């Protein structure tokens, strides 16, 4: 039995992770941690009424976890990652905090499942992978959409020749602007459209191409009222000259779409990155003047992501596979970011 603890009572942990975890045999929910006032505000911080309200709000959210799912309420992240009652840790914190707490958990001998992106820096991601490998620990980045059965079904449909030879593929993911205090708009918390929505599009693009892939074009867009990138687009190309266009944003009209344009038809699938459990995915196939809807099977991608994490805990070859996938994603995002910001020139 794998005893798992959750760092931070976040929305995704409560709404998606915990319901999936309940379905997975072999895991035991050991508890959830709130940050201490020093972890939240720093060692030199002086307590005041406003800060205590923030800490109390976190405790109230965590209590909902324990009331619904059982487990212990840990008074600090440090207490959870060092607890002898914990074997593995799920980290759904803002991206800028992933490195610190994933490293702390790995150093304490805990397996780590972290929300995407693994970190905001390729070098930090590599450091965590090296640490996990040294300690023979699982390190899994939760891009859960990759486990949904529709991804495989779409691939098989395209390979069958239904739309002819592939000419171009595009992945788009964006959503309307959220509340001002959302961490996605905070540079210090690792915010930005590339790190959030853009990561999904790059991840899927790399899956659609052969392993030898590079970023051919990239751009980030900004708005006057925000310090982070709010939207962007680019193109990834592999060594066979196959290309995937990507576009993303977090100040956009909602779109979550894969389009594959072939010599004889076009496949368009929505909710390809965000299909929840119980949802029936579909794709529209257009060939000439005809059009039909292809239905795919329902699936629970979050549950399957937890299953993959379990396999990484149990088997060395799965751990090594996970390390390689995480590093590849970090390298592509880093390449995209540098090209978008003019730090490198594409040759």
How is the secondary structure organized here?
Elements: E1 2-7, H1 11-23, E2 27-33, H2 37-41, H3 49-69, E3 72-74, H4 77-81, E4 88-91, H5 98-107, E5 111-115, H6 122-135, E6 139-142, H7 149-159, E7 166-174, H8 194-208, E8 213-221, E9 231-238, E10 243-249, E11 255-262, E12 266-270, E13 282-287, E14 290-295, H9 301-314, H10 316-340
Parallel strand pairs: 1-2, 1-4, 2-3, 4-5, 5-6, 7-10
Antiparallel strand pairs: 7-11, 8-9, 9-10, 11-12, 12-13, 13-14
Question: What does this 3D model show about the protein?
Answer:
Helices cover 38% and strands 25% of the residues. It is an alpha/beta fold and 347 residues long. The strands form 2 sheets. Strands 8-9-10-7-11-12-13-14 form an 8-stranded mixed sheet. Strands 3-2-1-4-5-6 form a 6-stranded parallel sheet, with helices on both faces. β13 (282-287) and β14 (290-295) form a beta hairpin. α8 (194-208) crosses α10.
């Amino acid at each position: 039995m794998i005893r798992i603890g959750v760092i931070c009572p976040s929305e995704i942990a409560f709404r998606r992770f915990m319901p999936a975890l309940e379905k997975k045999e072999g895991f035991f929910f050991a508890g959830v941690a709130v940050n201490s006032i020093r972890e939240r505000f720093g060692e030199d911080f002086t307590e005041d009424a406003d800060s205590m309200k923030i800490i109390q709000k976190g405790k109230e959210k965590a209590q909902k976890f324990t009331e619904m799912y059982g487990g212990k309420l840990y008074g600090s992240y440090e207490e959870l990652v060092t607890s002898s009652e914990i074997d593995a840790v799920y980290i759904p914190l803002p991206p800028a905090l992933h490195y610190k707490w994933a490293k702390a958990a790995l150093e304490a001998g805990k397996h780590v499942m972290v929300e995407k992106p693994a970190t905001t820096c390729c070098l930090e991601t590599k450091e965590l992978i090296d640490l996990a490998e040294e300690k023979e620990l699982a390190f899994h980045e939760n891009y859960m959409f990759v486990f949904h059965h529709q991804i495989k079904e779409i691939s098989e449909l395209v390979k069958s020749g239904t739309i002819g030879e592939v000419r171009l593929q595009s992945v788009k993911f964006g959503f309307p602007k959220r509340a001002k205090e959302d961490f996605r708009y905070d540079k210090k918390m690792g915010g930005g459209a590339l790190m959030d929505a853009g990561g999904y599009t790059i991840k899927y693009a790399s899956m659609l191409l052969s392993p030898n892939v590079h970023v051919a074009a990239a751009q980030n867009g900004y708005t006057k009222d925000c310090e982070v990138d709010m939207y962007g687009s680019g193109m990834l190309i592999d060594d066979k000259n196959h290309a995937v266009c990507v576009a993303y944003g977090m100040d956009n009209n909602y779109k979550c779409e894969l389009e594959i344009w072939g010599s004889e038809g076009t496949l368009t699938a929505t909710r390809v990155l965000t299909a929840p459990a119980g949802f029936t995915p579909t794709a529209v196939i257009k060939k000439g003047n005809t059009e039909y809807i292809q239905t795919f099977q329902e699936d629970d991608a979050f549950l399957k992501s937890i299953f993959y994490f379990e396999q990484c805990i149990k088997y060395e070859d799965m751990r090594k596979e996970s390390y390689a996938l995480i590093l590849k994603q970090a390298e592509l995002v880093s390449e995209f970011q540098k090209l978008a910001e003019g730090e490198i020139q594409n040759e």
